[in-house]
Amino acid sequence: MPTYRDEVVVLRTHKLGEADRIVTMLSRRHGKLRAVAKGVRRTSSRFGARLEPFMVADVQLYQGRSLDIVQQAETLGSYGADIAAHYDRYTSAHAMVEAADRLNEAEATPQQYLLLVGGLRALARGEHASRSVLDSYLLRAMALSGWAPGLSECARCGRAGPHDTFVAQLGGMVCRDCAPTGAARVHPETAALLDSLMAGEWGRVDAASPGSGAAASGLIAAYAQWHLERGIRSLSHVAADPGGDR
């Protein structure tokens, strides 16, 4: 059986037997991978700490019949400790890797890998509010999967905006003719923040008011939960205040 190498982000791990783990990873070139890391729960393991959630590694794998086997792992990005030391970063990172794990195999592209690595790096460095990093990641990850929300035109009829109603079930911002009765209006500052989060305009994102940040987070969470096959359970633990930890 052949061996191969790839760059990966560790999404989650599960115990297997007394000393092994099953590691789920998003790779740069091979999509999502599930592999057995033998002996990593022993204190003498050579690479156990390199295969923890949020870690970025260069791994060599042996192609097995059902699950591949990790043979080597070299750290490329050691983000776990800096993320785990801050509650806001930790919960946001969990939501990000859970969303990445929801991707179908066809959606697990190199662009998704690079987006996740960039998001985890930003969290570890505290470059921006943790919730803002998460919100930007979710919008971009959904867009890469073909579910970009309509923000400038009506998501239902295509009428040019700006519009002031966001309906997750209809695909984003909608005009008043398409908006269901009772749909909540979106403040212009919140609508502008959604655009900035999608575009990565961090100067505008960092300058946004806490109120518009919280409103945008709620809309993004609703949109992501609606379009993914299963909800992102980790979102319930993410702090509501997008200002949070820096």
From TrEMBL:
Residues 1-79 form the DNA replication/recombination mediator RecO N-terminal domain. Belongs to the RecO family. Pfam families: RecO_C, RecO_N. Keywords: DNA damage, DNA recombination, DNA repair. This is DNA repair protein RecO. Involved in DNA repair and RecF pathway recombination. NCBIfam families: reco. The gene is recO. It comes from the Bacteria.
